[in-house]
Amino acid sequence: MRSVNPALACLISAVLPVASVLCSAQSSSFVHQKRYAMGTVFEIVIYDDDLHQADAAARASLDEVVRLDGVMSNYKPESELSRMNRSAHFQWVRISRELYQVIEQSLLYSRLSEGQFDISVGPVVDLWKAALAGGPMPTAAEQAAALRCVGYRQIELMPPDRIQFHSDCMRLDLGSIGKGYAVDRVAGLLKARGIRRAYIDAGGSTIYALGAPPGANAWPVGLRDPSGKLAPQTLLMNNSVSTSEQSAPSALQPDAPGHIVLPGTGKPLETRYAVSVTALYATESDALSTTLLLLGPVKGAALVKTFHNVSAIWIDSGGQGTIAGDSTAFHLAAEKQPNRIATVEISKADKGSPQ
Amino acid sequence: MKKAPVVCAAFLVSVIAGVPATAKVFFRVTPYPLPPARKTGVEDVVVVWPSPDSSSIARLRSGGYRVWLQCESKDLTEAVAAADQALSTGVIVTNPANSNQSLEKQLSTLAVAHKNLAFRNLISGGKQPQMRGRLVVERDGILQVSSPSTQPWLDTNLAIVRLAQSTHPDSFPITYDFRWSTEEVPAGAWHPDADDYALAIAESDAIRSDVIIDLPPALQKALYAEDPQAWSLWKKAMAYLGFASRAPAETSHPVANLGVIVDEERDSYEAVNLMARHNLAFEAIRPRDLTRSHLNGWNAVVAFCALNHEAVAILQNFAAMGGIVVLVNSLENFPWHSAPPFRREPHSTTYTIGSGQIVELAEPVIDPEGFARDLRRVIGRERSVLGLWNSLTTIVTAYRDQDRREITLYLVNYADQPDNVQVQVKGRFRQVRYESPDEPCCVSLSSFERNGFTEFTIPSLRIVARVHLDSRGENSAAQ
Q1: Which of A255, A330, B173, B355: CA 20 to 30 A from B35?
Q2: Is A342 within 8 Å of chain B by CB?
Q3: For residue range A123-179, what is the model confidence (pLDDT) as tens digits?
Q4: How close, in Å, is residue A299 to chain B by CA atoms?
Q5: Which fold has domain A1-22+217-355?
Q6: Does the pTM of the predicted model rise above 0.90?
Q7: Cα dist. A332→A12, A224, A233, B190, B224 in Å?
Q8: Reported CATH class of domain B6-14+254-376
């Protein structure tokens, strides 16, 4: 893990400001479409000389996202995931190849993160979600009962398309990886249709950039900064970025729980960080952003090292940032707040875990 | 105790807040010819004054239209004279501040002098109803920030209408308008498209406020020229006009469990806007209209303004009876401060009073989205009169009839994508029926009762549906 020197950040920012990245556009012909799916708004921007082709590609892509929502939604009782959740207890269930793939990849991240990433955390998350929506806080007994249903090791896959749960109350929730998977599918679909310049956005939490916009080297994307002081940015070209952050504290109800829950304890995560992760694939960045938020910068940096082409930045509410992976993956517009930046000390690896 | 400002300090009068029984859709047209009213299905058209062509009003009238003149407040006298002379139906005057007592007075005088004319107040701040994306696409790039996944942002006019209705309950009928977004219009496509018109009409119907919708000159000309594509679009929009025209016409009142006390719209707009977006069933009133009878229907109150002694006493009593009171930007001393707070945080202090609580926020609402979500959480599911599941793009409004036996829900889906919407309404209802432009009145819905709520699902809500809940024969209905 490397720390970012604010002065260096300033320099990077000065060398690579947005204006220098985006040259005057040679062609401003683009299509922008949006669709509601997976609980958020998916948006696609495509630059192409053939706007009819771009329009059709965007439409087909969003149709594909809606279709995948029908497969992976845990809100829709008729989705394939919901049906599987109702029937995979102690018996093999045949599932579609794409659902199998997502679960298979999820289990990989679960193993790599030693269970911090866990798609079986749904029963515990739902418990806290109810409290977040105004219901009573879950009792210790309710938490223990829900926690008993969690554990990725109780999910068994049998190639090429079968799954079984070794738990009577297990329920999978793909909310921490499904959008990334859908974005990757869209990227593949656009490439297959000959699209070379596109921007795919799943509600802001996962973004994939195909190629670069006309006249530019990359797509600049601002990153979440809870401090509002660093104005971090990344440049995307044929890669993705995902961001995770715990729900903000409530002014009216300060003890309200956050929506991200630690699978090990079943308790809402307490952290002052937002984390953004860049990766070659959106599935990877999506899954890792939640995982790295749960792990914090110390353990998280160790996990980042095990991946190729993955970088992460943790930024806390005080305006301190920590980068793991390729430090040039992120740029901090530090000159925005010269006084603040002069006093900012980017956190070191020994800052400790936020949990 | 706060020194009550003039606007808040007056007397407390009993005003029964209500909304118009139905909404009227006006189309703003150019002087170019328009096919006759019997063909377009439109009854009321608006021409902006001064019209470049004085004969255009006569032409529109001969086409069967009721013609309204729209003018700025500075041109009101001249526009009224012109409208009178041209035998127009009425005058719609722009009220930029949404609060102009001298204009109200002038309108009253003119209304007396011109009894043949109707008058409308056009409030500012309207926006095209739509589900917005996050991307801002400009010629030289995309402005975007990667952040935790967010709920869809809905542009809705519910808040500005409710605030205007509450702060000017005695004014001339309120109308809002908006400009069609001109961003990213696909080449060769009609803009706005049929769904854009449908949503605008449906929203106006649901919030029961008149709306002025622009009819772009290109479409107007194409309709007149009998362009089949233009007529194909228009016939789809007409289905929504027809649906809106079949809305119940009886006087009714919004169903609300949350009172919002406001005296200055701009101080509270964003917070109230997000309350609307989060389907908090609210009713906005001025502080001088706060009475104990209002509080009978509410279980929570948010005050965005200073309160006089009487209002404070009413709210304290309300909390003692189990109500939740939130005072925004409150730094004053109140009677309940004599007891220690239940909880003190950097930006809020909570007092427990009787079986209720009063939360004092030390600053204005800085994060309206978070505030609305917090409010929903604090009120809790048990106290809410309305709830939706699995539809983050639908806004619901509800009205109860005078004898409190029937409730009509309006559900408007801003995403233009069919969604199964699960609905929960407080109370027991013998019959739940729904209708939509695709389903003539009425289709019975199966429902069940749980913990004092009636629950049902609207199948495939695309843009709009009305649901009629009948409690005749039952003991309780939503307050």
Answers
A1: B173
A2: no
A3: 988 888 877 776 778 899 999 999 999 999 999 999 999 999 999 999 999 999 999
A4: 21
A5: T-fold (3.10.520)
A6: no
A7: 8, 11, 6, 43, 57
A8: alpha beta
